[in-house]
Design goal:
mainly alpha; 0% strand; 74% helix; single chain; 191 residues
C-alpha cells in the first residue's frame, strides 16, 4: 500500500516508529546524563561542606536527598556547642568556626554566615542542639555501619580539633570537662 506520494505506508510507519524510539531513548539518555551530573555536583558540594571523603557515604547522602545547605549546619552546630561548653567562645574558637564555615562554602555576608556569627556572640537555645541530635540519630539510622563510622569520625575530628583550640598551653592540649561532655553527647548521637 502506498500513500499519495507513492511511498510505502508500511515503510513510513516503520520510519516513524524508529524515530519515536530513538527520540524516546535520546530523551531518556539526556535525562539520565543530567541526573548523573546533578548527583556528581551534589556529591562534590557535600564533600566541600563536610570534608567527607568516603564516596559511599557521599553517595548515600545524595540518595537520602541530603542537601549541602542542610549538611553545612549539621557539621557546624557541634562546633558551636563545643565552643560554648565552658560558657564563653574564645576569639580563637570563633575564628576556627568561621574558617570552617568558609571552607564549607558558607560565604561571608550570607544569612547562614551572619546567623553563625550571632551564635558565636550569643549562645543558641538548647533546642538547636536537641534538633541536631534528632537529625543526627535519624540520619545515622539510615547509614550502614561503615558509613556511620566515617561520618562520626569526620564530625568528631572537627569537634575535637576545636575543643583543643583554646585549651592547654598556646591552644594545644587540655580539653575541659565541659567540652568532653559535649563531645560525648555529639558522639552518642552519631552511633
Amino acid at each position: 500500500m502506498t500513500n499519495d506520494d507513492g511511498l510505502d505506508v508500511f515503510a513510513m510507519d516503520g520510519i516513524r516508529l524508529e524515530e519515536a524510539f530513538f527520540l524516546k531513548n535520546d530523551k531518556a539518555l539526556v535525562e539520565n546524563q543530567m541526573a548523573l551530573k546533578r548527583m556528581r555536583e551534589t556529591k562534590e558540594a557535600l564533600a566541600r561542606v563536610s570534608d567527607i571523603e568516603d564516596e559511599a557515604v557521599l553517595e548515600k547522602l545524595v540518595a537520602l536527598d541530603v542537601k549541602p545547605e542542610t549538611l553545612a549546619p549539621f557539621f557546624l552546630i557541634p562546633l558551636i556547642e563545643v565552643a560554648w561548653a565552658d560558657g564563653i567562645v574564645s576569639g580563637d574558637e570563633a575564628v576556627a568556626i568561621l574558617d570552617s564555615a568558609s571552607a564549607g562554602g558558607i560565604k561571608k555576608g550570607s544569612i547562614e554566615y551572619d546567623l553563625l556569627k550571632q551564635w558565636i556572640q550569643r549562645k543558641p537555645s538548647p533546642e538547636l542542639m536537641g534538633a541536631w541530635v534528632h537529625y543526627a540519630q535519624d540520619l545515622c539510622s539510615k547509614l550502614a555501619p561503615t558509613e556511620r563510622d566515617s561520618l562520626r569520625g569526620t564530625i568528631m575530628s572537627r569537634a575535637m580539633r576545636l575543643a583543643g583550640v583554646s585549651g592547654g598551653v598556646l591552644g594545644i592540649g587540655a580539653v575541659s570537662a565541659q567540652e568532653k561532655a559535649v563531645l560525648g553527647k555529639v558522639e552518642q548521637a552519631l552511633k
